[in-house]
């Protein structure tokens, strides 16, 4: 059943609604808790058969209930188990209270736990629903566990990680393994939560997929399932003039490399033709480096308007090494009625003049994709970036709504968001992608997809995925040039 949910991301609020829907449908909620706790105990025995003692840390809610079930199952299996609780066990309610009463082990206060060599901690303090800073007792326990280098298995999400935002609420466990239930949560993918989870296991506790799907929003993990139905438009056997013509705009003679990287990536990613648009002073240097990519001189808006009479030139990349200023703004506004990737200098040029760009994007009927990293995002969307209550996903969604563009909010946890609210979080990018020119390559891949007719959201999401796969193929010593050589075919 989990195959149907493998790309779904569920927020903590949506998971609460799913749990309620399951109970309303007649599914026994304690049976679900028992399944969750048994899955955790099975993972503990499988992963740490050499453990001298399993230490189960139980919180004051249902996550703690999962912990009591796990502790009981481990003890039944003959393991040495110790249970420590945050708060008073007698104050528990509902299923958590039932699980605690059924646990045959004595319960000690959390503050009494002293890590020992051979311990394995099962963290059942707080799950994905945590939305406040940790209490002092939990904070101190996490610090002691970290100092003792005790391996941790997290129940649902490492305590201290906010399941909605991935942010750390003061401190958190860094788990070796995390067991979550039914579907991943944003905190499993968004940084820094992602690196605190260790290996992630999603376990089916028995909630029908229909109930999960009906209450999940438009948030998904970025895989071919999100855009694969549009990949047929990129048939490599078709005629080159039907595979789109991508134009990439170059900067001056000392700033041409970034645009050439985008152009080369666009060609490698499947555009039928790619033209590098160059000012007169950069023609010679660009010509000396180009082979399959064509070259065209365009000095000003009049030259650009003349070229745009050729409707076969249907997608553009503007920004890499182009320069910040009026020329970038004028060119971008002229290109908004086609498909446009606005990157780097192209976005920064609108820092103090964004209203005209957003209005043009709303009214032009074109396909605008913007690809900001964190600094560029803060310059173009300062009020959204400054809102600490929003997750990275929510910031990207808000920026997409405001700008009427598809937003590729870059980073190790790149988020692609559409004005409709649809969003994907990328999970296949290796750390080696953090290298000069990597973003220029990504812009070129997005441009290639747009040129070949993919809708803007799917073009961007597919490009981010291919970019990540290329990074993995290229390996740790990659450069932007070798990244281009490793762009994989679309699945």
UniProtKB/TrEMBL annotation:
UniProt keywords, alphabetically: ATP-binding, Isomerase, Lyase, Metal-binding, Multifunctional enzyme, NAD, NADP, Nucleotide-binding, Potassium
Positions contributing to (6S)-NADPHX binding: 62-66, 127-133, 156, 258, 321, 373, 440
Catalyzed chemical reaction(s): (6R)-NADHX = (6S)-NADHX; (6S)-NADHX + ADP = AMP + phosphate + NADH + H(+); (6S)-NADPHX + ADP = AMP + phosphate + NADPH + H(+); (6R)-NADPHX = (6S)-NADPHX
Entry superkingdom: Bacteria
Residues binding K(+): 63, 123, 159
InterPro entries per UniProt: Carbohydrate_kinase_pred_CS (IPR017953), CARKD (IPR000631), Nnr (IPR030677), Ribokinase-like (IPR029056), YjeF_N_dom (IPR004443), YjeF_N_dom_sf (IPR036652)
Domain YjeF N-terminal: 15-213
Record keyword NADP present: yes
Binding residue positions for AMP: 410-414, 439
Domain YjeF C-terminal span(s) in chain numbering: 223-491
Cofactor mode of binding and number, as noted: Binds 1 potassium ion per subunit.
Cofactor(s), by name: K(+); Mg(2+)
EC number in record: 4.2.1.136, 5.1.99.6
Pfam family, any one: YjeF_N
Subunit structure, interactors included: Homotetramer.
HAMAP family: NADHX_dehydratase, NADHX_epimerase
Entry's family note: Belongs to the NnrE/AIBP family. In the N-terminal section; belongs to the NnrE/AIBP family.
Role noted for this protein: Catalyzes the dehydration of the S-form of NAD(P)HX at the expense of ADP, which is converted to AMP. Together with NAD(P)HX epimerase, which catalyzes the epimerization of the S- and R-forms, the enzyme allows the repair of both epimers of NAD(P)HX, a damaged form of NAD(P)H that is a result of enzymatic or heat-dependent hydration.
Protein's UniProt name: Bifunctional NAD(P)H-hydrate repair enzyme
Organism whose genome encodes this protein: Sinorhizobium psoraleae
């Amino acid at each position: 059943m989990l195959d149907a949910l493998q790309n779904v991301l569920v927020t903590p609020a949506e998971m609460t609604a799913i749990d309620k829907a399951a109970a309303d449908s007649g599914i026994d909620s304690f049976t679900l808790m028992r399944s969750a706790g048994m899955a955790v105990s099975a993972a503990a025995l499988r992963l740490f058969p050499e453990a001298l003692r399993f230490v189960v840390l139980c919180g004051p809610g249902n996550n703690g209930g999962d912990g009591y079930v796990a502790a009981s199952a481990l003890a039944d299996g003959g393991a040495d188990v110790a249970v420590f609780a945050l708060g008073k066990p007698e104050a528990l309610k509902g299923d958590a209270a039932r699980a605690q009463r059924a646990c045959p082990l004595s319960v000690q206060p959390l503050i009494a736990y002293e890590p020992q060599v051979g311990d394995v901690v099962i963290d059942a303090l707080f799950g994905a629903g945590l939305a406040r800073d940790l209490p002092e007792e939990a904070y101190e326990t996490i610090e002691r566990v970290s100092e003792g280098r005790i391996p941790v298995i997290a129940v649902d999400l490492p305590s201290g990680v906010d399941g909605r935002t991935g942010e750390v609420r003061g401190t958190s466990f860094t788990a070796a393994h995390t067991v979550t239930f039914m579907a991943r949560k944003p905190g499993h993918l968004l940084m820094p939560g992602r690196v605190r989870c260790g290996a992630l296991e999603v376990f089916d506790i028995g909630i029908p997929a229909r109930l999960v799907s009906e209450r999940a929003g438009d948030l998904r993990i970025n895989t071919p399932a999100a855009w694969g139905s549009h990949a047929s438009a990129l048939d490599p056997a078709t005629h080159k003039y039907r595979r789109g013509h991508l134009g990439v705009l170059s900067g001056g003679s000392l700033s041409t490399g970034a645009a050439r990287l985008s152009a080369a990536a666009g060609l490698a990613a499947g555009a039928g033709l790619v033209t590098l648009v160059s000012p007169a002073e950069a023609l010679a240097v660009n010509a000396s480096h180009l082979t399959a990519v064509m070259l065209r001189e365009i000095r000003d808006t009049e030259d650009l308007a003349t070229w745009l009479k050729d409707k076969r030139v249907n997608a553009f990349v503007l920004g890499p090494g182009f320069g910040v200023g009026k020329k970038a703004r004028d060119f971008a506004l002229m290109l908004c009625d086609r498909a446009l990737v606005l990157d780097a200098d192209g976005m920064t040029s609108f820092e103090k003049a964004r209203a005209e760009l957003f209005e043009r994007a709303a009214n032009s009927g074109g396909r605008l994709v913007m690809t900001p990293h964190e600094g560029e995002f803060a310059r173009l969307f300062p009020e959204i970036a400054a809102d600490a209550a929003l997750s990275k996903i929510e910031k990207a969604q808000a920026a997409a709504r405001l700008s009427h563009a598809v937003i590729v909010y870059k980073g190790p946890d790149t988020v692609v968001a559409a004005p409709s609210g649809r969003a994907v979080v990328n999970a296949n990018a290796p750390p080696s992608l953090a290298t000069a020119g990597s973003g220029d390559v990504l812009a070129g891949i997005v441009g290639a997809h747009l040129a070949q007719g993919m809708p803007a959201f799917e073009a961007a999401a597919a490009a981010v995925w291919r970019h990540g796969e290329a990074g993995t193929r290229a390996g740790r010593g990659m450069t932007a040039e070798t990244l281009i050589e490793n762009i994989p075919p679309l699945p």
